[in-house]
Amino acid sequence: MSTPDAITAGAAHDPFAALRYPEFRNLSGATFLITAAILIQEVALGYELYRLTRDPLSLGFIGLAEAIPFMGLALFGGHLADNRERRGLMQGALLAILLGSLALWVLTLPAVRPLLSQAALLAAIYGVIFLLGLARGIYSPAASSLKAFLVPRELYPNSSAWNSSFWQAGAILGPVAAGFLYAGFGLSGTLAVVVGTFALAFLLISTIAPRPVVAKPQEAGGLWASLKEGLDYVFRTKVILYAISLDMFSVLFGGVVAILPVFAEDILRVGPEGLGVLRAAPAVGALLTMLLCAYHPPTRKAWRNLLWAVAGFGVATLLFAVSESFWLSAAMLFATGAFDSVSVIIRQTILQAMPPDHLRGRVVAVNSIFVSSSNELGAFESGLAAKLMGTVPSVLFGGAMTLATVGWIWRRSRELFGARLH
Question: Residue 262 — pLDDT band, cuts 50, 70, 90?
Fold first, then answer.
């Protein structure tokens, strides 16, 4: 039987090296299940709310309801991840997510739903999503910082590629499953599947052995000093600051995922099954690209590759905006996922390799806040812009802003072009 040392020694020639560590496999499997469950829930709820309200802003409020608590708690979650046993934090947060999803299922049962007015139902759904955002603010920093302790440092690029691939596999299956589950079993049946999927993820997390808290330098000033230490490290480390800023602003303006129900229902007219395909297309592109990156990591000329990838994301978004063909639209979404996956691998490698162990949870939490800004607040921005500007003009505006962001950061970060991550 191969030992971990032997595995590490051959890692440079082994694209499956990180997967040979059982606990990393289990964490990645849980990532797959959690991602699929979240997206099944999100797609089904988004389609249902748009059908009820015919208002793209109702889709934006889903992102806002999750982003506000997540961003408010994520930095504290990073502090906990650096000072508490991570697996226990993940289990507690995931249990809260499971219970919240169970509440959503109860709210949509045929026996319960008629008892609520549309306004009461919307308020209850947004309220539960708010609570799910709080739980994710604890889970995300703990899970992200735990990854670095499950494989040797030499395997960080490989583990980033594989963990992201499991995430993207969930992001493929989730939307496709949501479309067909919704069409076949309705909203409450779909949410029952979500509850079961979260339960399986909880079991996988439970197989990971607890890790002791990393010894760290003595801190003075308590909680606020601890949080400030993580923020200060990010803002004085340019490669981290620029990498997460690039992702935040490009996806904040250029993301179109939140308003895909509008395209599916009113522009392309492809129904819930078509919506599932559109939602899955970026993840398919990302997964295939990440599998390729497991063999050919994009970290040799990391900063150049990162900027080109985000520029490609912006161009694909512009082409999606003007498309009136379902398959061309799906192809452009596929391309956005492929380009974004390169950015994800480079950024995750930076976040694993650079921060010291005693700061990693807080640094990852700062990144989580930036990512939440781009995803959940981006969903609100997409819904608001679509309502104010119209659906297609709002996407054109977002793609143009993505390219402008790349140009601005390109000019400010020329000294990073020679940086290497391994």
Answer: confident
Task: Report the distance separating Cα 65 and Cα 315, nearest Å.
Answer: 29
Residue type, 129: I
State the greatest distance between any 2 C-alpha atoms of the chain, in Å, as a whole number: 62
Q: What is the residue range of 331's domain?
A: 18-210+222-416
- Nearest Cα neighbor of 193 from 28, 44, 29, 31 is 44
Check if the beta carbon of residue 197 is closer than 8 Å to that of residue 33: yes
Any domain includes 12: no
User: Which runs of E-coded beta strand occur in 253-376?
Assistant: none
Domain tally for the chain? 1
Type of residue at 35: T
Measured at the alpha carbon of residue 272, what is the angle toward residues 132 and 270, in degrees to the nearest 5? 140
8 within a domain of the structure (yes/no): no
pLDDT tens digits for 9-58?
444 457 888 889 999 999 999 999 999 999 899 889 988 888 888 887 78
Quick check: is 5 in a domain?
no
Instruction: Work out the burial of residue 397: count CB atoms within 10 Å of its CB; fewer than 13 is exposed, 13-18 middle, 19 or more buried.
Output: middle
Q: What are φ and ψ of residue 421, in 5° steps?
A: -100, -5
* Strand runs labelled E in 198-291: none
Residue 326 has pLDDT above 60, yes or no: yes
Cα separation, 49 vs 172, in Å, equals 22
Distance of CA 154 to the CA centre of its chain: 24
Q: What is the DSSP letter of 376?
A: I
What pTM value is reported for the model? 0.68
Residue in 8, 20, 6 with CA at minimum distance from that of residue 153: 8
CATH of the domain at 353: 1.20.1250.20
Q: What is the mean pLDDT of residues 49-78?
A: 80
CB 367, CB 81: distance < 8 Å: no
Other CB atoms closer than 10 Å to residue 10's CB: what's the count?
12
SS3 of the chain: helix, strand, coil, percent, to 5? 85, 0, 15
Q: How far apart (Å, rounded) are the C-alpha atoms in residues 160 and 346?
A: 8
Residue 344: alpha-carbon gap to chain centroid: 10
| Angstrom distance (rounded) from CA 135 to CA 140 | 9
Question: Considering the domain boundaries, does residue 304 fall inside one?
Answer: yes
Q: How many CB atoms lie within 10 A of CB 413?
A: 20
**DSSP result, 2-16:** --HHHHHHTGGG-TT
User: Whole-number mean pLDDT of the chain?
Assistant: 82
* pLDDT at position 2 over 70: no
